[in-house]
Amino acid sequence: MSWSEGELRLLKLDALDERYRRYRLMLSTDEQAMARSMARYGQVSPIVVCVQEEVAVLLDGFKRLAAARRLRGFDVLTARRIEVDERRAKAAVFTLNQMNRRPQEWEEAWLVHAFVREDGMSQVEVAELLGRHKSWVCRRLALVEKLAEPAKEDLRVGLLSMTMARELVRLPAGNQVEAL
Length: 180
Known about the structure:
Elements: E1 8-12, E2 16-17, H1 28-41, E3 47-52, E4 55-60, H2 62-70, E5 76-81, H3 86-96, H4 105-118, H5 123-130, H6 134-146, H7 149-156, H8 162-169, H9 173-179
Parallel strand pairs: 2-4, 3-5
Antiparallel strand pairs: 1-5, 3-4
Helix pairs in contact: 1-2, 3-4, 4-6, 5-6
């Protein structure tokens, strides 16, 4: 795919690879608000993609894509390409989303877990990549690895606050469900 970094292009909605969507918590209220905004003003800012294996992979703009799919008249979105490898693509999902809405701790935890367990990075390497302290990485990793499944599900749907989740992580897994 001949497409220089920073160049804007129109991309068909069905041509976008959403493999990194799993690192974003998609709330229907946010998607509805984006759909109202796009219906009124159109696409204000481009989505951000990288190209992997000749495919445009979405890094920023998941709500804009969901909104465009809901609305009539949106067959394409304006996209800006950045040049990143696999690890930096995941980091971009984190950093690009800090501009409008800071990623929730749960989203950060998914990303940290992927870096450590899927990519084999050390916690120190992840901290350096994301510009955070290694204790921040350790706390996010604990949310994914030490939190009991019922608590994770309650966290995903908004029934459990992040403050309570952090407290539950301190308990042995067997005691978390009872405390929940």
